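Run: sequence + magnesium ion -> complex structure.
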Amino acid sequence: MIIPHSSTTEDWDYASAPESLKVSVAEVHKLFIGGKFVKAADGGSFPTVNPATEAPLASIANAGEKDVDRAVRAARKALRGWRRTKPLERGKLLYRIARRIQERSRELAVLETMDGGKPIRESRDVDLPLTAAHFFHHAGWADKLSYVARQSTAPDGIGVCAQVIPWNFPLMMAAWKIAPALACGNTVILKPAETTSLTALRLAEILQEVDCPPGVVNIITGAGDTGRLLVEHSDVDKVAFTGSTSVGKQIARSCAGSKKRLTLELGGKGPHIVFADAPIDQAIEGVVRGIWFNQGHVCCAGSRLLVEESIAQDFIRRIRDRMKMIRVGDPLDKNTDLGAINSLAQLNTIKGLVETGVREGADRFDVKCALPERGFWHLPTLFTRVQPSHSIAREEIFGPVLSVMTFRTPGEAIARANDTPYGLSAGVWTNKASKAYEMAQQLRAGVVWLNCFNEFDPASPFGGVRESGFGREGGMQGLAAYLREEIGGVR
Ligand code: NAD
Ligand code: MG
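>> structure
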């Protein structure tokens, strides 16, 4: 099992839906603009495949300049009415979305797995509950913002929000973006990643089902060019981006000097620090979950393991033994732990970095097991004898590859952990609370997990520092990112 625990609403049994539910996928998918499904103006499209089989799943409309403009206009037009909608009513809409996501959770989980390659158990037990939880959480906020702001009316949202999301948690990232924006009275144009558009388009169906006013949420599909046209559109008030640091930097440059407010959630190279006095059994599971959850396609993955030298040999042996128990294969099989790599391009990036790791002198270990003939696969991989200067210790691999280093003192652990331009997440394992807090104070990371890893909760702000970006999602900070003025002392 590589499943993080998450505190989510416990009123729905996500696992109880009928296993046999067949999910049909229409051959052609359109854009969702102004509450309607419409063709791309120039009729352009691109295919999406199942990365576990390479079988084409559907053709997706490719939004060009005219479509982007149309979507921004629809969001602008809807803004007046949505701003005037009573906060309580905005909250009710978010509750309805959350409920409908629960009711359609089995279908959404299967589709998420088919389009993106992640194990069904993860889609079902992590992505879907957290997606619904984000809508529930923000539904509750909608009519309470005025209390926190100490105003008689709800504080103003920012306006029209352009939101671009990645392929690693497609539906969950859509929820992280849409739910707070709507709670705060903004309207939205969301662009999912090109390899995983299908669940966002089902979310569009749900928006129709729950009578979301036309134009409040628009979902446009396409690749990087569509994303660029959207964030560069002159009538956008706010840009929220999750993805690679290189694209994040381009977006920051394009927004500089404009009226646009910007938040960026970028890459990471999370250090996972294990002290000799740690609860070792739990630490093993935490390290496994930290890097082999979602094939390592996790921005906050614990991709660098720093283990205290005195226990390193034994700890690494136990991680290797544990790796042999990870089941790789068909993502739709509920016994699968590690699914397919999201795309051929990502697989090639991972392979390239693994080859570099070997060339630069690190020791590679991976488990041997049969892989399906078709599809994009990478075995769980571990590197020892890693030097801080090695590429695999510095670059985000975004795959199932763990780089192990050792340390002798807490000071050395901190120095190594912080020796990265990133600063998204970190994990510390120790039985000594004072040591844990001392480490947390000194780690340069937006999120520090103590004796756990990859735990998420909509009430807890998530985001990075340094080249991992700025702005938070979740918690009061996540709301502040969609409000014009600061709220409760938080901006
Ligand atoms: P990416 O940054 O290229 O893509 C993320 C999203 O941005 C997609 O929707 C994409 O279509 C869009 N996009 C691409 N170029 C754009 C542009 N110029 N303007 C606006 N939007 C644009 O990421 P990727 O190529 O899919 O993955 C590459 C690397 O990014 C990964 O190896 C990983 O390191 C990192 N990544 C990080 C996260 C994260 O959660 N922080 C998620 C996905 C990928
Ligand atoms: Mg796909």
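>> summary
The longest strand covers residues 401-407. DSSP finds 16 helices and 18 strands in the chain.
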